[in-house]
Write a structure and sequence with these properties.
Blueprint (H helix, E strand, L loop, with lengths): L2 H15 L7 H15 L6 H9 L4 H23 L18
Helix pairs in contact: 2-3, 2-4
Length: 99
């Protein structure tokens, strides 16, 4: 299996169920943090931050990750609320590129 094929397989696993993807402990912790911040932001606690620190993330990395996760949550909600249509020139990621 080529590196590109394997990378694509992992991307699809992360997108469909990150828990099944072969991720490092740090990536797993970051995905758990992102999911919790997205689904139940009111339940975030110091324990969530400590879990990331335990995996080697410093405060700057945690801050940056929180900003990126929050921005994607924000912009997706804006697009959903305003019924923004997807660009027609962007190929859906699940479709293979044309030769």
């Amino acid at each position: 299996m080529t590196d590109a094929v394997e990378a694509d397989r992992v991307v699809h696993l992360v997108a469909s169920d990150w828990r099944q993807a072969p991720l490092s402990a740090a990536d797993h912790a970051l995905c758990a943090y992102a999911e919790k911040l997205t689904r139940t932001p009111y339940d975030m606690s110091e324990a969530d931050i400590q879990a990331l620190r335990h995996c080697g993330f410093d405060d700057r990395a945690i801050h940056d990750a929180t900003q990126v996760i929050s921005y994607f949550n924000y912009i997706n909600r804006v697009a959903d609320a305003l019924h923004v249509e997807l660009e027609t020139f962007v190929r859906p990621w699940e479709q293979p590129p044309e030769p």
